[in-house]
Design goal:
Helices cover about 40% and strands about 20% of the residues. The chain contains 10 helices and 9 strands. Strands 1, 2, 3, 4, 5, 6, 7, 8 and 9 form a 9-stranded mixed sheet that branches. Strand 8 (about 220-225), helix 8 and strand 9 (about 245-250) form a beta-alpha-beta unit.
């Protein structure tokens, strides 16, 4: 069943499973995902936790109530974080566990640093602290702007095919349920995804690297062994953040919760019940 809540000019869709009296876990999906991103993990974790997953702005069934008031600056990481906090307030969740994947992981780290009072422990799967140099951010933003234009003007299925040709998804493409995942991605709106890509781009978000040393919330950094880029990024993050630990998952690429859900669930449960 789809649950909905109005926040400002937007109607956010979400799902919730488990006993509301149990500790809450909030799940944040990656780019082109939705509230079903962690479906396999939630099916198991909801036996011990109250699991909530939201469609972030530009994804799934979250929509603007008044299209004329749909502003690009609502899609930035700062605004996205504010929406998440308002969402937790409306659900009367004073504090919870947090899990974020890729784009959702960057948002989760931003939330952890700027709203630490809301979170007990945080899991960041295949996430980063952004880009530290101005040149790197400019280069990435230019690439994401071009991809956003391709989303708006080209064939969406072809865009998906090209997106998953990236080296970080090499292992994912051989997964027996990869075709089903692609079909789920097609449920998104290309024009809305383009807004998200432009405004929640790694090239547009503020770098969080210099803030890691001041973080006091325990972090579990999860990377796939075959995703060498993010293994290196997460090792750097672990070195800077004293309250973090790194788990490199064998035989996995970027999308660990999809490629090896059982081990992903095991790592989360161990981390959250400490």
């Amino acid at each position: 069943m789809v649950l909905k809540v109005q926040i400002d000019n937007y109607c956010f869709s979400y799902c919730a499973e488990g006993d509301p009296n149990h500790p809450t876990i909030l799940f944040l999906h990656g780019f082109m995902g939705n509230r079903f991103e962690f479906k396999q993990a939630i099916a198991i974790l909801s036996k011990q936790f109250y699991c909530v997953a939201i469609d972030l702005l530009g994804h799934g069934q979250t929509t603007a109530i008044n299209q004329r008031a749909d502003q690009d600056d609502s899609y930035t990481i700062q605004s996205s974080a504010n929406f998440v906090i308002k969402f937790l307030d409306l659900l009367r969740v004073d504090s919870c566990f947090l899990v974020g994947y890729s784009m959702g992981g960057r948002l989760a780290l931003y939330l952890t640093i700027h709203f630490p009072q809301y979170f007990h422990r945080v899991v960041l799967e295949s996430a980063s602290a952004g880009l530290s140099s101005v040149d790197a951010r400019c280069d990435r933003l230019a690439k994401d702007m071009q991809m956003a234009t391709n989303l708006e003007t080209g064939d969406f299925r072809l865009f998906l095919d090209n997106w998953y040709q990236q080296p970080i998804f090499a292992n994912l493409r051989s997964h027996p349920h990869f075709a089903q995942m692609l079909e789920q991605r097609l449920n998104n709106s290309p024009s809305q995804l383009a807004k998200s890509l432009r405004n929640l781009s790694t090239g547009k978000q503020p770098s969080l690297w210099e803030k890691l040393s001041r973080n006091e919330i325990p972090l579990l950094l999860i990377s796939g062994e075959l995703d060498s880029k993010f293994v290196q990024i997460n090792r750097q993050m672990q070195q800077l953040c004293r309250n973090s630990q790194l788990e490199v998952i064998p035989s996995c690429g970027h999308n660990i919760h999809f490629e090896n859900p059982n081990l992903f669930i095991e790592k989360i449960k161990t981390f959250f019940v400490l």
